[in-house]
Amino acid sequence: VFDVLVIGGGPASASAAIYAARKGIRTGIVAERFGGQVLDTMAIENFISVKETDGPKLAMALEQHAKEYEIDIMNLQKANALVPGELIEIKLENGASLKSKTVILATGARWREMNVPGEKEYRSKGVAYCPHCDGPLFKGKRVAVIGGGNSGVEAAIDLAGIVAHVTLLEFDGQLRADAVLQKKLFSLPNVTVITKALTTEVTGDGQKVNGLSYKDRDTNEIKHVELEGIFVQIGLLPNTDWLKGTVELSARGEIEIDARGQTSVPGVFAAGDCTTVPYKQIIIAMGAGATASLGAFDHLIRTSAP
Ligand code: FAD
């Protein structure tokens, strides 16, 4: 029986597990892929106090730090059910089941992809998903933002201050972002908005992105825009499908938490991109992991016999 069982293998999980293990309690990690989204990241320049690193390096550092402690790391294992109770049960896809006094959910999220030719090939070579992370890499260049919801329009406003020009493409006939954001967007001199546009291809020279093609849904004509970067902003999907019906989720499927990381189920805490936390970043996920872990410890000292 674990005292704290952490589900997930990203920065939120590593931080939660290390905080728990440092209390001298039985700690485990179940991770489908240790490292999480960080593994897919090239340059990381906003992990404060580390001027520059990359994803594989940071993932390795997370693992090495966790291995300094007595943490039972079960990598390449996927949790597929949570059963509440005095001892919380976590069922794994491989048929095994684990029991713990507290559980910390840190299963992260994934960016929704366009699924068009060239997108995967040019990922991190011009195709980006996070304007806070990669925006400065496109200083003075031309970029597109795909998606006219709040995140797309926010990204376009943010990027317009850094890059030479932003083209925002929206599939629908109109943007779906809040009016105040749209007003700001349309006031910017270096932004072009194209609606009724279905992105069909990311083009490149073999090394880097050099443009994108889209279908004008009015005329069915295929058009091409030359640019150096594409920010895909069509949704961030939390990895919480397996929790539906047990833990309270928001309309977007994010785990609802309070200031201590506590979920709607007693003894179950959550941290990072899988939760309702408003901004999704490594440094924020790590802080949230520490919060959830201290929340779980607080819960343990109030509820378990010494
Ligand atoms: P994740 O990193 O998503 O980790 C979730 C973990 O849970 C994974 O190990 C996954 O395998 C595991 N998991 C999922 N479901 C299950 C399950 N059912 N059972 C067991 N395990 C499961 N942020 C920055 O601060 N700076 C950057 O420069 C930056 N660049 C980025 C670039 C890219 C391309 C991407 C995709 C993201 C970037 N981010 C960046 C965002 C950052 O990576 C995330 O905010 C951060 O990784 C979130 O951490 P997390 O621990 O909450 O989740």
Automatic annotation (TrEMBL):
**Keyword annotations:** Disulfide bond, FAD, Flavoprotein, NAD, NADP, Oxidoreductase, Redox-active center
For this record, the Gene Ontology CC terms, alphabetical, are: cytosol; protein-containing complex
The keyword Protease is annotated on this UniProt entry:
no
Subunit (UniProt): Homodimer.
Pinpoint the FAD/NAD(P)-binding domain residues.
2-289
Q: List the disulfide bonds.
A: 130-133
The name of this protein is Alkyl hydroperoxide reductase subunit F
Q: Provide the residue positions that the database annotates as binding FAD.
A: 3-18, 263-273
Carries keyword Ribonucleoprotein? no
Q: Per UniProt, what is the name of the gene that codes for the protein in this document? A: ahpF
Please tell me which top-level EC class this enzyme sits in.
oxidoreductase
Q: Where are the transmembrane segments?
A: none
Give one GO molecular function term: NADH-dependent peroxiredoxin activity
The EC code for this enzyme is: 1.8.1.-
Residues bound to NAD(+) are 142-156
Ranges in a coiled coil = none
**Family of this protein:** Belongs to the class-II pyridine nucleotide-disulfide oxidoreductase family.
Q: Which residues of the full protein are shown?
A: 211 to 516 of 517
CC cofactor: FAD
Question: Which lineage is the organism of this entry classified under, starting from the top rank?
Answer: Bacteria, Pseudomonadati, Pseudomonadota, Betaproteobacteria, Neisseriales
Cofactor-binding details, from the entry: Binds 1 FAD per subunit.
One GO process term, biological-process aspect: response to reactive oxygen species
